[in-house]
Design goal:
By secondary structure, the protein is an alpha+beta fold. Helix content is 20%, strand content 23%. It contains seven helices and 21 strands. It has an eight-stranded mixed sheet with strand order 20-13-14-17-16-19-12-21. The chain has a six-stranded antiparallel sheet with strand order 7-6-9-4-1-11, with no helix packed on it. A five-stranded antiparallel sheet has the order 2-3-10-5-8. A hairpin with a 2-residue loop joins strand 6 and strand 7. Helix 3 runs antiparallel to helix 7.
Length: 360
């Protein structure tokens, strides 16, 4: 799917939708782009009936956590950083936070922690790769968010069609990304940084991102139409994420899965975490950039609570799946939402500090 091209006269007119404003406040300059860094939020809702994919963060838990620790609402876009992170020079003071994978982040060459609000001064350099990566995707939130106009109600980048985020693409060397609300140049940054460091931040256990031996799933719409051997293999055998995997979907290598009586199916709505099985028998887990509809049989649905774990797995990673009752999956999802609400309440002093810093 691609968007209509603009005419040459349109190109000379108003800025393209989704392009940052030229008068936006300073933010950071990309010195090195990294492997794949794109701006994502919780996805583009309400457009799938028009064929527009939702996109959004692969690891929504880490995205929301980074925003909370930067004093933002959960709807602000974060920078999703994949495996080999970028090198960024702050051109304005900012409060920022990192969550998700540990990609060896440093500020001016000094190791910095995840899950803490930190202060960057103009001229500071944020880089990655100081240590071997633990996980695949990290999320960078800045207080106030990024000055990126929404496209169809979202700042999420949909890379395949080139819209949303920063010019509809991943970051490139030389990009200058504006911030919506950088910290005032005259603010006492030393005092703010010390006050933020003195804050005690406790993450509820439901937000800890602990690893598991198995990814939990619920039976899919066509579970009972698959052979007994295929159902048993999906629940017991080992699969690996194929190199032919990306933000759209994870293709799995492992036992071939087949229906008892293959048949033609009408296309239906596709969801994050749906496990489809094409005719070749290799399962595909639909991820954040999934298509809006699909006609392959669905053997399973990954439990929402385990999608962040899946998002942190790289090609070659071995996966095992284990069934979970619907009631338990719903209970875990509700517990995660309560944990985010508790964290938001606990971080009220953080937001007060940042608001004071903006007004000083």
């Amino acid at each position: 799917m691609s968007l209509p091209r603009q005419s040459r006269s349109e190109d000379r007119g108003a800025p393209r939708e989704g392009a940052p404003r030229e008068d936006a406040p300073a933010g950071f300059t990309v010195l090195k782009p990294g492997m794949l860094s794109s701006f994502q939020d919780r996805g583009r809702e309400g457009c799938q009936h028009q064929g527009i994919p939702a996109a959004g963060a692969m690891d929504e838990r880490a995205h929301r956590l980074a925003n909370a620790l930067a004093g933002n609402t959960q709807d602000c876009a974060t920078l999703e950083i994949t495996l080999a992170g970028p090198t960024l020079r702050f051109d304005a003071p900012a409060c920022f936070a990192l969550a998700g994978a540990d990609l060896g982040a440093t500020l001016n060459g000094q190791d910095i922690p995840r899950h803490r609000p930190l202060v960057a001064r103009a001229g500071d350099t944020l880089a990655f790769g100081a240590r071997p990566a633990l996980g695949v995707r990290a999320y960078l939130a800045v207080h106030g968010g990024y000055a990126l106009p929404p496209v169809m109600g979202s700042q999420a980048t949909y890379l395949r069609s080139g819209f949303g985020g920063f010019h509809g693409r991943a970051l490139a060397k030389g990009d200058q990304v504006p911030l919506a609300r950088p910290l005032p140049a005259g603010a006492d940054l030393d005092a703010l940084a010390q006050a933020l460091w003195n804050l005690r931040v406790y993450l509820p256990s439901a937000l800890g991102g602990r690893t598991r031996a198995g990814i939990r799933f619920l039976p899919g719409r066509h579970w009972n139409e698959f052979s007994a051997a295929s159902r048993r293999a999906f629940a017991e055998a080992e699969f690996r994420i194929s190199p032919q995997s990306d933000r759209m979907g994870y293709r799995l290598t492992g036992p071939a899965l087949a229906m008892d009586a293959p048949r033609q199916m009408l296309s239906e709505a596709a969801c994050f975490g749906t496990v489809q099985v094409p005719a070749g028998g290799e399962a595909i887990i639909l991820m954040a950039d999934r298509q809006t509809t699909g006609g392959y049989p669905k053997i399973a649905q990954i439990a929402t609570v385990d999608l962040p774990l899946l998002a942190q797995c790289a090609p070659g990673h071995a996966l095992r799946f284990e069934p979970i009752p619907l009631e338990e999956a719903q209970r875990l999802d509700a517990a995660r939402e309560r944990a985010f609400a508790q964290l938001h309440e606990a971080l009220a002093p953080l937001r007060a500090l940042l608001n004071d810093g903006e007004s000083s």
